[in-house]
Amino acid sequence: MQTCRRELLDRTPIWNHRHLLHVLREFEQFYNQSSRGGRGLGR
């Protein structure tokens, strides 16, 4: 949760609930990619 807040929410203006959900989905996909140096969950 801290990673999401630091890397995303502290730097991105959120316009409304729909935009928040979209941004969180994009961040989740990025964060879980296996290309993150083997640290991803590979979902």
Written account of the structure:
With 43 residues, this protein is an all-alpha fold. It has 2 helices and no strands. It is flat. The two termini are 18 Å apart.
How many beta strands in the DSSP annotation? 0
Number of helices: 2
Tell the overall outline. flat
Largest sheet: none
Question: Could you give a short description of this structure?
Answer:
The chain has 43 residues and is mostly helical. Helix content is 56%, strand content 0%.
Task: Using brief descriptors, characterize the structure shown.
43 residues, mainly alpha, 2 helices
In terms of topology, how is this protein built?
Blueprint: H1 2-9, H2 17-32
